[in-house]
Amino acid sequence: MKDIDSITLAVIANNLQWATEEMGTYLTRAAFSSNIKVRKDCSCAIYNARGDMLAQGTFIPVHLGIMSLTMKELLKVYPAETLDEGDILMHNNPYMMGSHLFDVMFFKPVFVDGELVAFTGDLAHNIDMGGNPISYVSKTIYEEGMIIPGVKIVRKGELQKDILRIIQTNTRTPYEVTGDMMAQIAANNRGEARIKALAEKYGKDKLKDYFDALLEYSEASMRAAIRAVPNGVAEYEDYLENDGIKDTKIKFKARVTIEDEDVYVDFDGSGEPAEGGHNCTPAMTYSATYYSIKAAIGSDVFTNTGAYRAIHVKMPDYPSIINAQMPSAVAGCTCMPTERICDVILGALSQIIPERVCAADGHWTSAGFIGKFPGQNRYFSYLETYAIGKGAKHDQDGANAHQSHMTNTANAPTEVIELENPLIVECYGLVNGSGGAGKFRGGLALSRELTTIPPASFSVMAGRPYTPPYGLFGGKPGGHDYVALRYADGTEERRTSGKPVPANTTMVMRTSGGGGWGDPKERDPQKVLWDVRNEYVSLQEAEEEYGCVIDPERMEIVELKR
User: Fold this and answer.
1) Cα-Cα-Cα-Cα dihedral of 295, 466, 385, 304, to 10°?
2) Which residue of 217, 297, 433, 481 has the smallest Cβ count within 10 Å?
């Protein structure tokens, strides 16, 4: 490789990252669905000509991990010599290093002087891709929607309208889906313009050299970060409590080995495949592993494929919940199993590098309604991933009502929900007392009640309905999830999977709180008092868990029982 100037490398790296951020701005501002334009359930990245991810924006971890893998799979279907300037590839196949069918990816080859030098790529979560509207209860991939195995949606700059018509015909909300896909195309085009500008400035050959150097730099940085932490081996196991069809316990087990400048994660011993849609594709297992290790050990490392070369994943040599095999259902793979993978990896790391990890986060709940607008032959589709309480760390409380680990989506405001859907938001707030007690308290969970005006199909994934998120080093568990349907007659039915519901049915939802860290009796009494005054902690909890007796009228500590 030719001489690489470190300043130029930094300039190019930052240009690439900001190009992905600009792509995201184009995508969210041009999108039609609130899930993308408001909640920003999308991600963007840039690749070299070999399909190695060079840079990513600050988007969704669960997307970005698979996007580092998918491009290489597509190049097996469309080798470089079959691509032309102006082409755009489209893909959502879970079994081609994808996630679930709702995550539709677009990739555009970038040519400079007739030579392929890079790709731009983006992913957007389309709420409806056909199939069962309550997809989590499906038993095979074929019930979940339309599989797109990698096609040229654009050929030499010309949109393939026949392919688009097939997609439109197979979705309930073609207007929104079409608009979102056009936004994805626009985002890729913007990224292409930025890469061509860099090639014009530096020359394409020099730019390619710096692409390779950037991958090597990230690899070296990640290996240095691993060397800076102790070697060690640790195991942790936890359980998923629902498989999409029924309540059941499925084991997740991780053995983490830190050895010099490499990290090895072995999932042998993990449980059987789920009957419903809570299976994890291999790409999602890689994604959750990459996220967990990088967050704990190399958070400052510039993220690209090079950073992942020091992270090695071993999956079971038998069918399991973390390496789903065709045609297993995988609609819930971005939520249920990936979050539990994060939990077991971080649980193992807590035994080796305790000050670098947090207690267990609450498990974000995914819920939504699909139905028809009253009096119209037109569908609405609402989905949201709800915030949770973050796990506490060794030196700070967990954040309240925060997105967790594999998701980074924004909140959907009440006004947007009610404006675009026949839904009424009945309440929205924090769940008092849901944070696990500890020297540092777990974050509080989120509560929302949402009523559908017409009949609808209701879908929900609640990750910890019975077993709460774990605390660490004497910290107590956080509060568990609770999801129920309240019918018009006032009766209530607890649900952990979806079903058709009649008009005027209310979803009653509480997410899970974060686990605490350390002995609650070591918590600063003034922090306990603050929590009580702000209704984060009850008077009873203050006394029983923290040993702080507080006068309810004066709101002052009158006795310490420690």
Assistant:
1) 20
2) 433
Give the tens place of pLDDT for each residue, 190-239: 999 999 999 999 999 999 999 999 999 999 999 999 999 999 999 999 99
CA distance 61 to 68: 11
3-class DSSP state for residue 62?
helix
Please state, in angstroms and rounded to a whole number, the distance separating the CA atoms of residues 213 and 205: 13
Residue 158 per-residue DSSP state: E
- Return the domain boundaries, the chain: 6-221, 358-515, 524-562
CA distances from 347 to 351, 361, 388, 398 (A): 7, 11, 18, 16
Question: Which helix (H) or strand (E) covers residue 178, if one does?
Answer: helix 174-202
Q: Residue 132 half-sphere exposure, CB side, CA atoms within 13 Å? A: 21
Q: pTM to 2 decimals? A: 0.96
Cis bond leading into 327, ω under 30°?
A: yes
Using alpha carbons, select from 517, 434, 440, 513 the residue that is nearest to residue 471: 517
d(CA 397, CA 438): 9
Task: Give helix then strand counts, H and E, for the chain.
Answer: 12, 22
